[in-house]
Design brief:
Distance between the termini: 100 Å
Strand order of the largest sheet: 7-8-12-13-14
Number of domains: 3
Helix content: 40-55%
Number of strands: 14
Shape: flat
Length: 569
């Protein structure tokens, strides 16, 4: 009998699975800290605040409660585990409880366990030990409600109310102005995933995580496993995808996609979700289910895993909506056309990649591209080219970057850049319902009626006191997702979605009913301005729809005639 040697197992595939949400490496107990989690530790601003809080505990006779709250997977347990490992002396007389992983009894709910842990901080009780609790917002809310029903923990509940923990608009306030009070709270949600800078959005935290995952480091088990596989000739599409992410330009462009959907869709990104995201753009589902396959297919390349798999995670579902394939421009149409017509397709594709200043190509990708050409899968190849160009070249779609620039200028008080935004909004305002002549604006765009009314209005730019409030900061760490601006002392909030729509309106586009839901605030703002003018104006213009003839009706101050009618050319 002939012995069939089994295919060598990929060490890289085994290691990269540590990034999955289901991996034990991403769900950390506050008492454990593995070599991988130690290697992956990345400092963030809240870490220094908690270290200072722990140092103050040593000086406090009255026992204090420190609450570390946030969403699932945002790094509370990881940080506690790291601090206990790196600063063990600070935990000498401190009890640590993690609501997500610790329970006194399998028959006891997390709320019941938490009630016992915090009993010393209940009204009329005296705690015997400093206590730190890592708690998810949902668990805290359930605890709050249950204790309110029981009439317990009134002081703690009042502290939670005072800090607006359940109020989304209060997440960015300083909840610890009194550092020596009985209760302290540190909210991981108060840290923005990225900062605004003059060079665009930046995230030292996410960039550091990304770099640690792909860099050549003796302590990085993922890279070392990848290297061993490559040297042993054990190759899959995941090895090529991982190699692609070793390029810093690619990583920055991938992160920009994340910043885009965070800003536009106002989503929260946890550390655990970010780890899982990296896994999903490296490992296709096919290899996740069967590691014995190679996955050598253009559909399994990173650009396609990034933009074309909304089913794999909520984050990828959002990124799918900004797929460059959805943004049809002249350049992409010409590319697709040439690919189908030219006979030397391999040379044409290679020339496209040679134009890129980014050295990203691997032998696996080259072979996959050649295989795709041989199979005449030109549509799939076109999609790949458009997506990889979006990750290797300066973006053709500047809307996101422009909006971030204006958002930054609003906080820093840059009048020149804000002037650019005002010019865009003003032109969109003029075309929102239409304007029969300069400084006159229609009340309605309903053309089914015999005529329309227009009132005079001079648009004077207006911003409120928050404009330029962070002029001294090079990085804006705390900010809303919108710019507050307007005309004539009336304001509205313009976020990324509305900005995108107003750009289209500026170009002559008429929003449909669904898009008008995005523009509710702007529509209300428009109506408010015109309503104010209508009440106070002494003139109105009437425009007949069928022949566009215009008549100006003016209220007179003296004489027997109350109104004068004049045809306007």
């Amino acid at each position: 009998m002939t012995n069939i040697m089994p295919k060598p197992e990929s060490k890289f595939l085994n290691q990269i699975k540590m990034l999955q949400s289901s991996s034990k490496e991403t769900v950390i107990h506050s008492n454990t800290f593995s070599p991988f989690t130690k290697y992956m530790h990345t400092k963030r601003p809240i870490e220094g605040e908690i270290i200072e809080a722990l140092k103050r505990l040593e000086q406090q006779d009255e026992k204090q409660l420190i609450l570390l709250c946030g969403s699932v997977g945002d790094g509370k347990s990881h940080l506690l585990s790291y601090l206990k490992s790196a600063y063990s002396s600070l935990f000498f007389d401190v009890f640590v409880h993690n609501d997500a992983t610790e329970s006194h009894s399998p028959n006891e709910s997390s709320i019941e366990t938490l009630e016992k842990v915090l009993q010393g901080f209940n009204d009329g009780h005296t705690p015997t030990q400093h206590t730190i609790v890592a708690i998810n917002i949902g668990v805290m809310h359930n605890f709050y409600i249950s204790q309110m029903e029981k009439g317990q923990f009134a002081q703690l509940r009042q502290f939670i109310d005072d800090n607006g923990v359940f109020d989304e608009n209060s997440l960015f306030t300083d909840s610890n102005s009194d550092k020596n009070k009985k209760f302290q709270l540190y909210n991981f949600a108060s840290e923005r995933v990225f900062a605004l800078t003059s060079d665009g959005p930046k995230s030292a935290f996410l960039e550091s995580i990304f770099t640690k995952i792909v860099q050549d480091d003796s302590d990085n088990p993922i890279y070392q496993a990848w290297k061993q596989d490559v040297e042993a000739g054990i190759l899959t599409i995941t090895h090529a995808n991982y190699q692609l992410l070793q390029n810093e330009t690619i990583r920055i462009r991938v992160l920009e996609k994340i910043y885009h959907v965070i800003l536009r869709d106002k989503i929260m990104l946890s550390t655990r979700a970010f780890y899982n995201f990296i896994f999903t753009i490296i490992v296709p589902s096919e290899l996740e289910l069967d590691p014995n396959k190679t996955g050598f297919s253009i559909q399994h390349t990173l650009p396609n895993l990034l933009f074309n798999h909304p089913d794999r995670s909520p984050l990828l579902e959002k990124i799918y909506t900004i797929d460059p394939l959805h943004m049809r421009v002249k350049e992409t149409d010409e590319l697709i056309s040439n690919l189908h017509v030219l006979s030397e397709k391999q040379a044409f594709v290679q020339n496209i990649f040679n134009e890129s200043k980014v050295d990203w190509q691997s032998d696996i990708y080259r072979n996959v591209i050649q295989q795709t050409i041989e199979k005449n899968q030109l549509q799939e190849l076109s999609k790949f080219i458009i997506r990889i160009k979006d990750l290797t070249e300066p973006t053709l779609y500047e809307t996101f970057h422009d909006f971030v620039k204006y958002l930054y200028s609003f906080h820093t008080g840059d009048k020149k850049l804000m002037g650019e935004l005002f010019a865009i909004v003003k032109e969109a305002f003029i075309k929102w319902k239409g304007s029969p002549q300069p400084n006159y604006y229609f009340v309605s765009n309903d053309l089914s009626r015999p005529h329309r009314l227009a009132f005079p209005l001079k648009l004077k730019e207006h911003v409120e006191q928050s404009f330029g409030a962070q002029a001294s900061n090079e990085e804006i760490l705390q900010f809303d997702n919108y710019v507050t601006m307007g005309f004539c002392k009336s304001v509205f909030n313009i976020d990324l979605r509305l900005y995108e729509l107003l750009l289209k309106v500026k170009g002559g586009y008429r929003p449909n009913k669904n898009e008008m839901n995005v523009a509710i605030q702007f529509e209300d703002f428009y109506k408010q301005l015109l309503s104010t003018v209508e009440k106070n104006s002494e003139e109105v213009m009437i425009v007949r729809n069928f022949d566009k003839s215009k008549y100006l009706i003016t209220k007179t101050s003296f004489g027997s005639v109350k109104f004068e009618l004049e045809k306007v050319r």
